[in-house]
Amino acid sequence: MSSRKTELGPLRSRWLSQPLRTLLALSLCGLIRGYSVTELMSKYPLIDGHNDLALQLRILYNNRLSQIDLANVSEVATDISRLRAGHVQTQMFSAYVMCGAQQKDAVRLTLEQIDVIRRMCTEYQDFELVTSLQEVRNSEMRHKIACLISVEGGHSIDSSLPTLRMFYQLGVRSMSLTHTCNTPWAESSSKYHSFFQRQNDSLTQFGKAVVEEMNRLGMIVDLSHTSWDTALAVLQHSKAPVIFSHSSSYSVCKHTRNVPDWLLLKLKTKRGLIMVNLYNQFISCGNEANISQVADHFDHIKRVIGADSIGIGGDFDGASSFPQGLQDVSKYPGLIQELLKRNWTKEELAGVLRGNFLRVFEEVEEVRDQLRLNRPSEVQIALEEVQNPCRLDLRPPDRKALFSGHSSSSRAPFRSLLFLTLVPLISILF
Ligand SMILES: *[C@@H]1O[C@H](CO)[C@@H](O)[C@H](O)[C@H]1NC(C)=O
Ligand SMILES: *[C@@H]1O[C@H](CO)[C@@H](O)[C@H](O)[C@H]1NC(C)=O
Ligand SMILES: *[C@@H]1O[C@H](CO)[C@@H](O)[C@H](O)[C@H]1NC(C)=O
Ligand SMILES: [Zn+2]
What dihedral angle (degrees, nearest 10) is formed by the CA atoms of 309, 226, 362, 306? Predict the structure, then answer.
């Protein structure tokens, strides 16, 4: 029959007893194909690039984990039963806060999202929080679902490298530079929000410092949601491979969240990875889509840059509509089956499912090791670039202004400092 059967032959004989093999040989072709998918995905369980369950926990439960059982959550597309059924072994969970929090409390909200991911991944036996390539591999041997934390949107660090480093300390191993808003230092693919409009400066000096610090820390730079100009600038600047954690092909569906062929080629020269997003609007550019149309994205990207630059970033619980037959995280085998039908080889699919991501993560860690002698970056963004009325300009008090009683520009920061000292004093007194 097909070459697929011979490729999986050795696998099958390792795992199956003789009677079962005979039974399979007598089965219908479709059955064998179905079994092959299970076999393939058991050997190479999926690493998925993007999932917004934590956002749904915020929306539906205000992050009160005690009110639900993550084994089965019917309101969402992701729970432990369905991750298991879908052969999802590692999930990048997104710590995402809306762009409306930029210049407000984005950092607090992001910390709360990191907290809820950390809680769910430590309070449930099936999950395991991981922070390195080795831990991903170990978790697979222990049959756990590994959780990697990614921050979605550079507004979450409030233009502060120390904040980025503290996210790293909390386990964050990837960050997309923007969501649907520009940051003071990088540009979004979306024109929806009007913050920080600029021309010809898609990745500012500070933006380059963010990329350098992510390289030094070993945090994967994620280009999903950035403008193509920003993506190009990052590809030119980053020392490590980068990913699009949840984006599809612009040639197949002309949506600015997707990646055009010229950018895919740049991504390949940087040994990067595109993890295909399953949202209907990015697959068919319409409200409806099917698995065949998803597979068209895979086929196209493979033709342009080869199968070893491709992964899967479902975007479940983030996007609002998914293709027929791919409505939740349990449905991934249907997609793999379609790719097998289109003559993708076992080796190609092993890469798409997990090998390609592991290779990128390994190279990101290698760059981190090469940079280990570099000290933490002390680059700071200029206050004028941030334009954030909530940001205190902390400087030593200007004594002259204090005693002259004149209002001056340095008084406001001084008052802030005074306030910061007085509040604890007052709270001790009362
Ligand atoms: C979750 O739901 C599925 C399907 O309804 C069921 O088979 C399974 O036993 C449930 N798991 C738990 C832990 O309740
Ligand atoms: C923008 O950058 C391009 C290429 O670097 C340059 O040719 C062009 O003059 C720049 N435009 C502005 C308005 O700075
Ligand atoms: C998927 O959708 C496309 C566009 O509507 C259609 O042409 C195609 O026949 C569908 N394929 C399947 C297998 O349903
Ligand atoms: Zn997204």
Answer: 10
Burial of 14 (0-12, 13-18, 19+ CB in 10 A): exposed
For the CA of 71, the nearest ligand: 1
Which residues belong to the active site?
50, 52, 152, 179, 225, 246, 315
| pTM as predicted | 0.84
Residue pLDDT, tens place only, 116-127: 999 999 999 999
Q: Is the CB of 292 under 6 A from ligand 3?
A: yes
| Residues 58-79 as b or e (16 or more Cβ within 10 Å = b) | beeeebeeeebebeebeebbbb
DSSP structural state of residue 309:
G
Q: What is the 3-state secondary structure (H, E, C) of 57-123?
A: HHHHHCCCHHHCCCCCCCCCCCCHHHHHHCCEEEEEEEEECCHHHCCCCHHHHHHHHHHHHHHHHHH
Dihedral angle of Cα 287, 290, 295, 300, to the nearest 10 degrees: -40
pLDDT digit string, tens, across residues 368-410: 999 999 999 999 999 889 878 888 877 777 766 666 654 444 4
48-68: per-residue pLDDT in tens? 999 999 999 999 999 999 999
Nearest listed ligand to the Cα of residue 226: 4
Question: Please, are residues 373 and 281 in contact by the beta-carbon 8 Å criterion?
Answer: no
| Residue 198 CB less than 6 A away from ligand 2 | no
Q: Indicate whether residue 174 lines ligand 3 (CB < 6 A).
A: no
